[in-house]
Amino acid sequence: MRQSRKVKAGTRKRRGSEAEALRAAVDHGKRQAREVLARRETRATREAARGVNGLLIAEGDSWFDYPFNSVLEELERLSYRVESAAHKGDTVEEMAYDPGQLNKLAALFEKLGRTGDTPRAILLSGGGNDVAGPELGVVLNHKQSGLEAVNDDVATGVFQGRLRFAIASLISAVTELARKNFGRVVPVLVHGYDYPVPDGRGYLGGFWVLPGPWLEPSFRQKGYADMKERIRVMVDLIDRFNDMLDGLAGQSGLEHVSYVNLRGTLSNELEGMRYKEAWANELHPTDAGFKTVAAEFHKVLGRLARA
Fold first, then answer.
1. How far apart are CA 58 and CA 108, in angstroms?
2. How far is CA 29 from CA 17, 23, 170, in A?
3. What 3-state class would DSSP assign to 80?
4. What's the pLDDT score for residue 305?
5. For residue range 68-87, what is the model confidence (pLDDT) as tens digits?
6. CA–CA distances in Å: residue 183 to residues 57, 118, 250
7. Which residue spans within the chain are E strands per DSSP?
């Protein structure tokens, strides 16, 4: 008799656990369906509004082609239609000089030209991959050398020489593609980057398509351990890059080029690790950071429309 009662009690307990598990499964299914419906509704809303603010053509690096979010994703949320040939990891020299890259871009222009759509602007993003990674160490003097951290001769050659000419060549190429396919010169937007923090964080901890880190190894190899000193060096380098772009826009033959200044949009403040709210890793913004950056593009595009 006692054994039978124990069996019945155990059965009731098992049935109770199964019932709870079944209810949990049902609740999970409801939540999943609601999340899917919410995502589809958001996507449908975005698709309905897509193109309200005009067509943008984009070529660039991971700031335009980042997993799950990017500047371009945020611009689409602002009701732009974006057609992109951007690819994460690309250098601006590859964009400018690789025939395969230019052929891909030409095909995109031709496709859009056949539809009769004229872009509001062409967005270009590039240069970060040309100086990040092992290339960064080339512009740094060793800490123990007693010299300034940034080798001025090398940095000037990189920014005012190599990158400046590559970006000018890329601008010229997309301008000619626009003239051929749309019958007019289309405004071109170029952007610099904001000040990153070389803390050794890579993408997803240094995993998958954009591993990293891209900055910290060079600083460590050149003897710079203090984070504040590393940040000062990056401010110097980012300023050099931005100054070069700012000086390029508006030059003869480049009067249709506008420079988007992104400095000050993403925090590099170490106190309380506040910079991590804006930077997902050493080179790429968080979702909130991408939203802030896209807002700056939106402002410049708005000024162009009023000009």
1. 10
2. 18, 10, 50
3. coil
4. 79
5. 999 999 999 999 999 999 99
6. 15, 9, 21
7. 55-60, 81-84, 121-125, 188-191, 257-260
